[in-house]
Amino acid sequence: MPIDLPNLLTISRIAAIPLLVAMVMLRSPLGDMAACVVFGLAAITDYFDGKIARERGITSGFGVMLDPIADKLLVAAALMLLVGFDRLDDRALLPAIIIMLREILVSGLREYLATLRVGMPVTRLAKWKTGFQMGALGTLLAGDTGARVIGLGWLPVAAIGEVMLWGAAALTLITGWDYWVAGLKYAANDKA
What we know:
Strand content: under 5%
CATH class: Mainly Alpha
CATH superfamily: CDP-alcohol phosphotransferase transmembrane (TM) domain
Number of strands: 0
CATH architecture: Up-down Bundle
């Protein structure tokens, strides 16, 4: 396991999850804002780990493998916290389910295609999806109570986060479909 800055940033995304859970479990406005900050900082590492690795020419198989896992763990933890602590409106449960199912679908496709020695590169739209998803989840973690901590109690932060989550779910469906179609092309040619 190469320990370099990009991999440390990726690992930090996973390491942030227990702190994120602890902040949400406080069930307080300050805890909500702290959860948003922890999540936001963890999410930002997703941009920088790849950028630094490419710029410095230090990409590794370990990093390529761990990066999408760290993303999925962080997103799944945030979604489960929001649902488990009743922080989502009932209607927002649907985009949460769509996001989780897409993540499982893409992971399964990647695992299958790896047996065929076929990589499934991340598309530009999938990167936008991840960014939009991270923004939505951070906003939802802050919620209306967290917004009050920084003097934005007048802003309907939870409602904004739910609208963003629906946008992320739409991008999730599009990118999930793109990956599904690409995966089916290889599966149709597999003679196994």
